[in-house]
Design a protein that fits this description.
Number of strands: 16
Structural class: alpha+beta
Order of helices and strands: HHEEEEHEHHHHHHHEEEEEHEEEHEEE
Strand content: 25-35%
Largest sheet: 6 strands, antiparallel
Strand order of the largest sheet: 13-12-11-14-15-16
Radius of gyration: 25 Å
Helix content: 25-40%
Distance between the termini: 27 Å
Length: about 425
């Protein structure tokens, strides 16, 4: 039976209010009936009415069912059922599933099978001529927009960044509108971000403008570039890659441990990058979820701290670590196996990746046998020979020191090329337990 930690359950909540309400329902007295099987948990939660709510959780996905009228998903009763099981599993007695639960589980199985059968069928190909016409129209728009961007960048670099003080924000905003018209939303967002940088952040201005210049130059000679560079360029310009194309690529098997999630703002919502690590192959990957404001809440692709046995297919590109799961089954996370990745090796790996793909903004690293040290006013990770500066809040610093006990630990990091800084995703204590930030 899959087990969930409080952190994993919290990651399933649609909002903080639902999670708080769920904690208020973990009193066993509110549950006159609690049962469990290998597949599900179910129970009756006494509400304000005469009839208790029938609540169930299918454990493997997980999925939730409740007879309450809440429009939130999962509701507070489903979350409370999981929390109560995590706290006091002995309260759940084994039993045969009642009819209402069996009907729901069977319907879910039938729906999954129908979806699998539909996916297995060869769908009728779209009209090739119409599809090509749409692609040509978008590429033409992009080419015209990027040509304008190239001229704009040439003008900026010719006059120098100092000459733009006081006007860069407005100029970036105007060019962002042009990129939106050219269906280059990612470039538009990057320009908006450049315009919001402090006026004296000239290194950051230059770094980001240079990346945009490289993208525009790549697209101008796209057909002459190697296939992996073409894929990298079009992906960063926002051209979609069909899931079928990704899943047709090589499937990499592994035991993929969740090591951290990075949340970034996007238009109308958030992007959640769930970082994964397979210790056997020493591979990294991330699965991407998009949380759109106003859209129904969906369960995350990866639960906090979980491990998954499965196959991942990487998106095309150069050192592109975004992936899709081809097969995916949650398993209990094993302790992190000891290793000996030095800081020097980690930095060399990051530099090699950037040399191969200067469009990279960050790269994941593992370092072992490191300690937290203070270097003047800044913090750093040191392995006794080399050190790396680490941006860490006071609460995170205290938690790291308390959990590691001052002993050496392993850490998973994101190396940020723009700032040459590190972001701590997680660290492993002496017992191999992973602490995720």
């Amino acid at each position: 039976m899959p087990a969930f930690t409080p952190e994993q359950i919290a990651s399933l909540a649609p909002d903080a209010a639902s999670l708080k309400a769920a904690h208020g329902l973990t009193n066993p007295g509110k549950w006159p009936l609690l049962h469990a099987s290998e597949q599900a948990l179910w129970g009756h939660c006494q509400g304000s009415g005469k009839t208790p709510y029938q609540t169930a959780v299918e454990l493997h996905e997980p999925a939730f069912k409740c007879s309450c009228p809440s429009r939130k998903f999962p509701c507070k009763h489903g979350l409370a059922l999981l929390l109560l099981h995590a706290q006091r599993s002995e309260l759940f007695t084994p039993a045969e599933a009642p009819d209402w639960l069996t009907t729901w589980l069977e319907k879910r199985t039938q729906t999954k099978e129908a979806k699998a059968a539909k996916a297995a069928k060869t769908e009728a190909a779209p009209d090739p001529a119409a599809q090509q016409k749409r692609q040509d129209a978008r590429r033409k728009k992009a080419a015209a927009g990027l040509a304008d961007l190239q001229l704009w960048l040439d003008d900026i670099l010719r006059n120098g960044l100092i000459a733009l003080r006081g006007t860069l924000r407005e100029r970036c905003r105007d060019m962002a509108k042009r990129m939106t018209d050219a269906q280059l939303g990612g470039i538009a967002a990057e320009l908006q971000a450049i315009g919001e940088l402090p006026a004296d952040a000239q290194e950051q201005h230059l770094y980001r403008l240079t990346r945009l210049n490289l993208l525009a130059e790549n697209y101008a000679r796209l057909e002459a570039l190697p296939p992996d560079v073409q894929a990298e360029t079009t992906a960063r310009l926002g051209f979609p890659v069909a899931k079928e194309t990704v899943l047709a690529g090589a499937a990499i098997p592994g035991l993929w441990q969740h090591i951290g999630t990075v949340i970034s703002e996007i238009d109308r919502g958030e992007a959640h990058a769930h970082w994964l690590y397979d210790a056997a192959s020493q591979r990294f990957a991330y699965l991407l979820d998009f949380i759109i404001r106003g859209a129904p809440t969906a369960l995350p692709s990866v639960l906090h701290g979980k491990a998954y046995a499965g196959e991942l297919c990487y998106y095309p590109g150069i050192h592109n670590l975004r992936a899709l799961a081809k097969t995916w089954e949650a398993v209990a996370p094993p302790p992190l196996a000891p290793a000996a990745h030095s800081i020097a090796q980690a930095v060399e790996t990051a530099q090699q990746a950037y040399a191969a793909n200067p469009l990279l903004s960050h790269y994941p690293l593992r370092v072992d046998n490191v300690r937290l040290a203070r270097r003047g006013d800044t913090l750093a990770l040191t392995d006794g020979t080399h050190a790396l500066p680490l941006a860490l809040g006071e609460n995170a610093r205290l938690h790291l020191l308390a959990s590691s006990g001052g002993a050496a630990f392993s850490a998973f990091l994101l190396y940020e090329y723009e700032t040459r800084g590190l972001r701590l995703l997680s660290f492993s204590d002496g017992a191999g337990k992973l602490h995720i930030y």
